[in-house]
Every structure is written in structure tokens, then in C-alpha cells.
Amino acid sequence: MAPNDINALIKKLSPLMEEDSEIFKELATFFGQGAKIEVHHGDLSKFLGNRRLYRVIRLKGESYKDCVYQLVDNYPESMDALGMLRYYKAPAGPVRWEEVENAEIAMGKELTMAAYGWMPDAWTLFEKGEDHTDASQHELVAILAFDLGE
């Protein structure tokens, strides 16, 4: 889906969300072009429900798995989210898919300790360019949706 189409869909589903907000920009990135794993656009409507509060958490580490452990250890509130969309940014060079798989396995193991029902729960991966300032770092960007309550 083209960037303008994604932006229009976000505006349609969440008309009060500002286009220059961090959440809007990260959703446009997640559902935009360039991902190594195609994402399902139906997850966007599940994510942008009524009475929700959103948060973006950015993590950098030695590995994708390190980023996952930082998320679990330093942001325990993320386990209470209604939905999580996350993407990894691969360091320069070839993508090491086994490392991404290890990170997702670690995420799954951590989540079995706490009952969760994220809807949606989706992830993808983007490559960083060689000219990126910290091209050797692994990154994780988590976009979280929380229930505002009554």
C-alpha cells in the first residue's frame, strides 16, 4: 500500500489522531513500504479501537533478543497493553533471520508468564541503510495500545 493510502486509512480509522504525532508516524512506518515481512492491514483497524491510549517505546541493543528483554524488564506496563505492533531495525549487512526468530521466541516465553491477549500482536523487520548513524545497533520499536477504561 502506498504511503498516502496508509495515511488516509489511519485518518479514516482515527480521525482525531494528528498526522505529525509520533504514533501516526510509527503506524505509517509499520504499515508502509519497505518491510521485509508483509503486514496485514486489517491489524490497523484492530489496533485503532475506541477509547485507547497509545505509546511508542524505542530500544537499542546488542541483539534483537537484548531489545526484547529491555522491553520486558524496563517497561512491564507493556505486558498490560491491548495490542502491540513492533518492528525490528536490522543492522547494516545481511539480515540474520535466526536472531529475529530467537527474539520472537524470547518474547513468547516472557509472555507466557503473564496472561495476555494482544489484539493485534504483529511484527515485521526493516533494514537500515549503510549510511545510518548507528548502523551496527539492533533496534526494536514497539507501538502499544492501552485501554482508557470507563
Architecture overview:
By secondary structure, the protein is of the alpha+beta class. It has one domain: 60s Ribosomal Protein L30, Chain: A (2-Layer Sandwich), CATH 3.30.1330. The protein has helices at 3-13, 22-31, 42-47, 64-74, 97-112; strands spanning 52-61, 83-90, 121-127, 138-147. The protein has a 4-stranded mixed β-sheet. Helix 1 (3-13) crosses helix 2 (22-31) and helix 4 runs parallel beside helix 5 (97-112). The N and C termini lie far apart (35 Å).
What is this structure, in a nutshell?
The protein has 150 residues and is α+β, with helices and mostly antiparallel strands.
Query: The CATH topology, please?
Result: 60s Ribosomal Protein L30, Chain: A
CATH superfamily: Tubulin/FtsZ, C-terminal domain
CATH class: Alpha Beta
CATH architecture assignment name: 2-Layer Sandwich
The average pLDDT is 88
The major pleated sheet works out as:
4 strands, mixed
Q: What is the number of helices?
A: 5
Question: How helical, in percent, are the residues?
Answer: 25-40%
**SSE ordering:** HHHEHEHEE
Number of DSSP-assigned strands: 4
Give the tally of structural domains: 1
Which secondary-structure class do the elements indicate? alpha+beta
- Rg (CA only): 15 Å
Shape: globular
Low-confidence stretches: none
Assembly form of the protein? single chain
Q: Which range does the strand content fall in?
A: 15-25%
Distance between the termini: 35 Å
Strand order of the largest sheet: 1-4-2-3
